[in-house]
Write a structure and sequence with these properties.
Layout lengths: L1 E6 L4 H11 L5 E8 L3 H11 L3 E4 L18 E4 L1 H8 L6 E4 L7 H9 L3 E4 L2 H18 L2 E4 L2 H10 L7 E8 L9 H5 L3 H4 L9 H9 L1 H14 L6 E5 L5 E7 L4 E5 L5 H9 L31 H11 L3 H17 L7 H12 L8 H17 L7
Parallel strand pairs: 1-2, 1-5, 2-3, 3-4, 5-6, 6-7, 8-9
Antiparallel strand pairs: 8-10, 10-11
The chain binds NADPH dihydro-nicotinamide-adenine-dinucleotide phosphate (NDP) and magnesium ion (MG).
Length: about 375
């Protein structure tokens, strides 16, 4: 039995992961789950799966939690440090990194340090510290398996050839809810409309990232580190149906794509069962009706976040940590009505420009810069806002 710990089990990826694990009970066992605040959902998961550990990372909630709601065989522990203990525990084989944001960095690094197989949904970890994490994995023998649908598609398509035969990869993007919008329409975007994604159901942060195309920017950086590519080998194409999850183009011109309905259960399961494939509870393609697939280039002027991703992928060093922290705070401030939608890439640009660049920072330097960039972004006021 493979022993699985799901960090961020109450989120969108986490709950899809538990659905997948429900279908794999004969070969995998869920030994650990975690939430930050939604302890009732966490408690319900322990009743269903009876894991050995449940971590509530917001230790401040300890007094308000009703421990009797948890399975009697589950040990409930509190605080962010417990996430890293779980991620590196000897009795865990696979860690699903499904916490949102840089909050997932410490536990993902702990899993890599302990040489685990890490099914990585938490792309922010690779944006903040891609080279450090990849180098650590090389040293410890940890495996980093992509969960992000585009990167899972690339990973699957890569198996059609060798690494040196790869010419480039093409990441697909739905274009988000504002595909084809005008500049005036983008100026007026509210959190409510930005949270309505046309093809994917996801947590709020990545849903806003998808609307600004910052998600694709983060994915360009994620792909660079996961697949050891030059930024020039990464392209982005808008594909509104979200059925083709990405392509790999080989040196002979052959493009290999992976297709499936837009649902995360398949890429999550593939990361858990790789190198094998198994029946999956996700929806399947229906080829019985007429439909078409569209592709067009992204509008880089209207969505400047995308270019930031390429720039950060080219410059590396401290840029990823700064971009990520600025974006996390900007998304938060937008959701609270403090910033306009179009301010998100603007503040990221401003904070990136203001930071002191270091081409080869340590992990602790990246953590310090994360704090600095959050403070800068919190203070930032748009000169263009009325
Ligand atoms: P959600 O917001 O739905 O879930 C986030 C999870 O992380 C929850 O379990 C949440 O706990 C926990 N969490 C939140 N803040 C903290 C914190 N400070 N410390 C520890 N745990 C925390 O996010 P998603 O599932 O949408 O996304 C998770 C990751 O997967 C992100 O990195 C995202 O980019 C990536 N991803 C998501 C996809 C999707 O389809 N959703 C697709 C591809 C990648 P609580 O429930 O208590 O708040
Ligand atoms: Mg994705």
């Amino acid at each position: 039995m493979k022993r699985i710990a799901v960090l961020g089990s109450t989120g969108s990826i986490g709950t899809s992961c538990l659905e997948v694990l429900d279908g794999l009970r004969d070969q995998m066992v869920l030994v650990g789950v975690s939430a930050h605040t939604r302890w009732q959902d966490l408690a319900a998961q322990t009743l269903d799966f009876e894991p050995r550990w449940a971590v509530l990372s917001d230790a401040g909630l300890a007094d308000s939690v009703s421990t009797s709601a948890f399975a009697s065989g589950t040990k409930l522990v509190y605080g962010a440090d417990e996430l890293s203990k779980l991620a590196s525990h000897d009795d865990v084989d696979v860690v699903v990194a499904a916490i949102v944001g840089a909050a997932g960095l410490q536990s993902t690094v702990a899993a890599v340090e302990a040489g685990k197989t890490v099914a990585i949904a938490n792309k922010e970890t690779l944006v903040v510290a891609g080279p450090q994490v990849v180098e650590l994995a090389r040293k410890t023998g940890a495996k980093l398996l992509p969960v992000d649908s585009e990167h899972s598609a690339v990973f699957q398509a890569m198996q059609s050839g060798s690494k040196r035969e790869v010419k480039r990869i093409v990441l697909t993007s739905s274009g988000g809810p504002f595909r084809g919008a005008t500049r005036e329409q983008l100026e007026a975007v509210t959190p409510d409309t930005a949270l309505r994604h046309p093809t994917w159901e996801m947590g709020p942060k990545i849903t806003i990232d998808s609307a600004t195309l910052m998600n694709k920017a983060l994915e360009v950086i994620e792909a660079k580190w996961l697949f050891d590519l030059e930024p020039e080998q990464i392209e982005v194409v808008v594909h509104p149906q979200s059925v083709v999850h990405s392509f790999v183009e080989f040196v002979d011109g052959s493009c290999i794509a992976q297709l499936s309905p837009p649902d995360m259960k398949l890429p999550i399961q593939y990361a858990l069962t790789w190198p094998e494939r198994m029946e999956c509870p996700g929806p399947k393609m229906d080829w019985s009706s007429v439909w078409s697939l569209d592709f067009h280039p992204p509008d880089r002027d209207l969505f400047p976040a995308l270019e930031l991703g390429f720039e950060v992928a080219r410059n590396g060093g401290t840029c990823g940590a700064v971009l990520n922290a600025a974006n996390e705070v900007a998304v938060d401030r937008f959701l609270q009505g403090q910033l306009k939608f179009v301010d998100i890439p603007r503040v990221c640009r401003a904070v990136l420009d203001a930071h002191h660049f270091d081409p080869s920072p340590s992990l602790s330097e990246l953590v310090r810069l994360d704090v600095w960039a959050r403070e800068e972004t919190t203070r930032w006021k748009s000169s263009r806002s009325t």
